[in-house]
Specification:
heterodimer, A: mainly alpha, Rna Polymerase Sigma Factor, Chain: A, Arc Repressor Mutant, subunit A, 2 domains, 10 helices, B: alpha+beta, Immunoglobulin-like, five-stranded antiparallel β-sheet, 26% strand
Chain lengths: 179, 219
């Protein structure tokens, strides 16, 4: 595993080092703001969410285990989970709004696939083995926070059908990655 | 490890869905409770996290407004405020609890009206919600259970105040009627927390039960 400077900063933050907290913020806030903004799609809420995320980081840094995850992965998981919780706590959108508001993800460019290395490359290859629609649904859920409800509305299928369809995709992904 | 087949085992599927984020809020909270309670499940979640983490590369970096860091630091590291401690002399040995709270507490926005402070005490996956209102002019802190069940038979909710950097002090038991305590100040950085204790309260004035809900007074 390559050096993980974020992990080192997290260890200092766990010891309540405020200077390290500031450095951690400087090093990671743009990425984490990108995460919460993409999921929440609302700048002001994303700013609140970012504060909440770093508050949790300050409080939970002692729970970070560098043997289990890279620092940045751990931080992004906190940011995603918080943003998705906020999204799920919003009142349900009015009917018919959903499908229209749904914007298709741009497919990753060819250049990007070529430069993807190591784990990224493996995941990209495994995604390529799924049907494009299933691959897009899983990526959209992860990156944009789409719920089963959103996905079912988009594909015009019942929610449980969407759930089993997506679960089969996850199973294939797992088999491909763990092979 | 994987058995090829039509289905992911249910736990594995739930872990994947939690990481993916597709579940409704209640199911997500149930999954979080399972992560906290079941290290095996937490491990499966971590594995899914690692499998899907390369997708994180797709998130662009977007610099947040400068003001965010200032607000964040003001919230986490409030300037020290002089505390008049008369009754604070009755300090109980709650060091361990103060440390635990540091880990467990969830910050919530605190509404501050002129002179008054309203804090909502909540906890992760916790139906109990407690509202604390502090009237600055009268020094009266009024605390009520605003949502969630009463403590089970043989148990009591106990309210604690933890001045920043100090040990926890019991303010009394939180039962059906409002708990009113007179305190000289409620400066930013002070934590209010509720633990579950044996009926009658923590023996010896030191918290023994889990922290259910908490809030830190903001600026």
């Amino acid at each position: 595993m390559t050096a993980d400077p974020v992990s080192g900063l997290l260890a200092q933050v766990a010891a309540h080092d405020r200077g390290a907290f500031r450095s951690l913020y400087a090093a990671t806030s743009a990425k984490l703001f990108g995460v919460v903004l993409r999921i929440l799609k609302d700048r002001s809420e994303a700013e609140d969410a970012l504060q909440e995320v770093f508050t949790r980081v300050w409080l939970k840094a002692q729970g970070f285990d560098p043997a289990r995850a890279r620092g940045m992965t751990w931080l992004i998981a906190i940011a995603r989970n918080h943003a998705i919780d906020r999204l799920r706590a919003r009142p349900a959108p009015t009917d018919g709004d959903d499908a229209l508001a749904f914007v298709a993800d741009p497919a990753p460019g060819v250049e990007k696939r070529l430069v993807a290395k190591g784990e990224s490359r493996r995941l990209a290859d495994c995604f390529d083995k799924l049907e494009p629609a299933r691959s897009a649904a899983i990526r959209g859920a992860y990156l944009d926070g789409y719920s089963y409800q959103d996905l079912a509305a988009r594909h015009e299928v019942p929610l449980n059908t969407m759930r089993s369809w997506l679960r089969r995709g996850l199973l294939k992904l797992k088999e491909c990655l763990d092979a | 490890m994987t058995t090829p087949g039509d289905h992911l085992p249910e736990r594995d599927a739930l872990a994947a869905e939690y990481v993916l984020g597709t579940l409704p809020l209640a199911d997500r909270q149930a999954a979080e409770a399972l992560i906290a309670a079941d290290p095996g499940f937490a491990q499966i979640v971590a594995q899914w996290q690692a499998r899907l983490a390369p997708l994180d590369d797709d998130y662009q970096e977007i610099t947040p407004p400068k003001a965010v860091l200032g607000k964040l630091e003001a919230r986490l590291f409030p300037a020290p405020t002089r505390i008049r401690r008369n009754w604070l002399a009755a300090l109980f040995g709650g060091l361990a609890m103060a440390a635990a709270i540091f880990l467990a507490v969830i910050y919530l926005p605190v509404l501050i009206a002129p002179g008054d402070i309203v804090a909502t005490l909540t906890g992760e996956n916790q139906p109990l919600t407690v509202t604390a209102t502090y009237a600055g002019d009268s020094g009266r802190l009024t605390v009520t259970r605003s949502a969630g069940p009463a403590a089970a038979t043989g148990k009591d909710y106990e309210l604690w105040i933890i001045p920043e950097g100090q040990t926890a002090i019991s303010l009394g038991l939180l039962r059906d009627q409002a708990l009113v305590a007179e305190i000289s100040a409620l400066p930013p950085g002070t934590t209010l927390a509720v633990t579950l204790e044996p009926a009658g309260g923590a023996p010896g004035g030191v918290a023994t039960g889990p922290i259910l809900v908490a809030a830190v007074i903001g600026k």
